[in-house]
Amino acid sequence: MPSEIRLIDTHAHVASGQFDADRAEVLARAAEAGVARIIEIGYDLPSSRAALALAEAHPQIYAVVGLQPNHVHEAPEGWQDELRAMAARPKVVGIGEIGMDYHWMKAAPADQERFFREQLAMARQLRLPVVIHSREAQDDTLRILGDAARGQPGIMHSFSGDWEYARACLEIGFLLSFSGPLTFPKATELHEAARLAPLEMLLTETDSPYLSPHPQRGKRNEPARVRLVAERLAALRDLPLDAVADQVWQNAERIFPM
Ligand code: NI
Q: How far is the CA of 206 from the centre of ligand 1 (A)?
C-alpha cells in the first residue's frame, strides 16, 4: 500500500540519461514511497525541453526551466525567446536552476552574473519563482539576490551553509530546500540551520541522480529517497514525519503555481 504521507521532491533531474534504462520503475518507487509530486529541473535548453516533456507526460511532475551557471557559456543566440516560450506552458512552475558557481567556473563570474540577473528579471516579469544554484559563491549570490530579487519568490536549492547564511537567505525572503547532505551525520552546521529556520520556509528535495542521502550515500539518487530527507528534518525538528511533510507540501504549494 502506498504511504498516506504526502511528500514532494522539489528538485530532481529524472530526465537525466542515468534513468533511461528504468525511468518508469524509478517513478513507481517514488509513488510507492509517498512522493506525490516531483519538480523536474532544467539546467540548459535541452534539459529544460526534456523537463517540460516529462512534466507534460506525467500529471505528478512539474517543470522548472532555465540556464544553470555551468551551462551559460553554451547558450545559443536567442535563448531568451525559447525560455520564455517554454515558461508560458502550464506545467512550467519556475525559472531555474540559475545562479553562481565558482567551483567549476565554466564561465567568468561577470558572465554568470549577467545571465543570472537576466533570468531573475525574466522570472519577475513572468511572475514565476526562481530556483537558485549557488556553489562556493555565497557572497556574490547574496549580493545579487539582495539587490535584484528581494521579495521575489525563490528557493535556495540544495541549501548548504550555516545558520548565518541561512538567515541571510531568509531575510531576502527565500525558502531553503534541503537535500541528501542533511542526512549526513557530520553535517552539524546544516542540522543547526534546519532546526532554527521557520518550518514555513523549508522544502525537501533529492537533486536526483546526485546527492544520495545516508545510508545510500554515493549511489545513484532517486526521488523516493526524499523520504529520508524529510525523516531527518522531522527528527531535527522533533516533530512527527506527517506534520513536517504536510507543512513542506503547503510551502511548495505556496511558492510554485502548481
Ligand atoms: Ni540540480
A: 9
Residue 202 has φ and ψ, to the nearest 5°, of: -115, 145
CA of 132 to the centre of ligand 1 (A): 9
Ligand 1 geometric centre to CA of 17 (Å): 14
Q: Say which CATH number the domain at 120 has.
A: 3.20.20.140
Name the pTM for this structure.
Answer: 0.97
Q: Looking at the 3D structure of the chain, how many domains does it have? A: 1
Q: How far is the CA of 207 from the centre of ligand 1 (A)?
A: 5
Cα angle vertex 211, ends 208, 214, to 5°?
A: 115
Ranges assigned E (strand) in 170-242: 175-178, 202-204
Q: How far is the CA of 1 from the centre of ligand 1 (A)?
A: 30
Look up the domain containing 137 and give its range. 7-255
How far, in Å, is the centroid of ligand 1 from the Cα of 220?
Answer: 14
Amino acid, single-letter form, for residue 2: P
Residue 125 Cα to ligand 1 midpoint, Å, equals 23
Condensed to tens digits (0 to 9), the pLDDT of residues 122-176 reads 999 999 999 999 999 999 999 999 999 998 999 999 999 999 999 999 999 999 9
pLDDT tens readout for residues 211-256: 999 999 999 999 999 999 999 999 999 999 999 999 999 999 999 9
Q: Within a domain: residue 2?
A: no
In a domain, 60, yes or no: yes
For residue 240, how many other CB atoms are within 10 A of its CB?
11
Enter the DSSP assignment of 107.
S
Cα 252 to middle of ligand 1, angstroms = 17
* Residue 223 alpha carbon to ligand 1 centre in Å: 12
Residue 1 located in a structural domain:
no
In a domain, 236, yes or no: yes
